[in-house]
Amino acid sequence: MKSICVFCGSSMGRNQVYKTEAAAFGNLLAENKITLVYGGGKVGLMGVLADSALASGGKVIGIIPRSIADLEIAHDHLTELHIVEGMQERKAMMMEISDAFVALPGGLGTLDELAEVLTYNQLRIFDKPVGLLNVNGYFDHLLKFFDHGVLERFVREEHRNNIVVSENGTELLEKLRDYEPVHIGKWIEEIKEESSVK
Ligand code: AMP
Questions:
Q1: Which domains does the chain have, with CATH numbers?
Q2: pTM
Q3: Is 23 left (phi over 0), alpha (psi -120 to 50) or beta?
Q4: What pLDDT sits at residue 71?
Q5: Residues lining ligand 1, judged by CB closer than 6 Å?
Q6: Residues of the chain whose pLDDT is less than 50?
């Protein structure tokens, strides 16, 4: 695993622990000689993550749409900063150059990016590990939602279980390294005999 793309908040969050853990994860990537690929901003947890990876001697590649870069929130000191035309181009580049994906706590932008890579795995457009660093139980509700999706037969259990989750960065990296892709179709057959289940 040479590069990991991290999605995370452009805000800091309410609890100091989000900032502390984002910094620790940036540090961990650098120590493991893993290139950080991320959204290229200097704000919020994104900025903390990039700064800590750089301070620990790591390589950091930022990919930012021109419209966001023009707001002067692009990070100025990255190893590489790619300015692209839009959000779709950014995500396409992130997906192409990264070996794995990790979401740290964040908001709607983080959710959008996470949902896209999970969908790509599900459709087998690629097979790359996707993990959640579940700092302070931040993703517990989202994981419950995925479980509900399995129960209600909108999400395949194999796809749900394929999401790598840990509260600890070192353990998360180990699990991402051990990741086995699931070779299963996306579509869930209608189960007639259970159609009355509430
Ligand atoms: P959010 O979780 O809504 O704060 O959005 C963060 C995610 O969306 C990051 O992973 C970025 O790729 C992207 N993003 C949102 N806002 C910014 C920003 N101000 N600068 C750079 N990227 C951003």
A1: 3-196 (3.40.50.450)
A2: 0.92
A3: alpha
A4: 83
A5: 7-11, 39-41, 43, 46, 64, 68, 73, 106-110, 113
A6: none
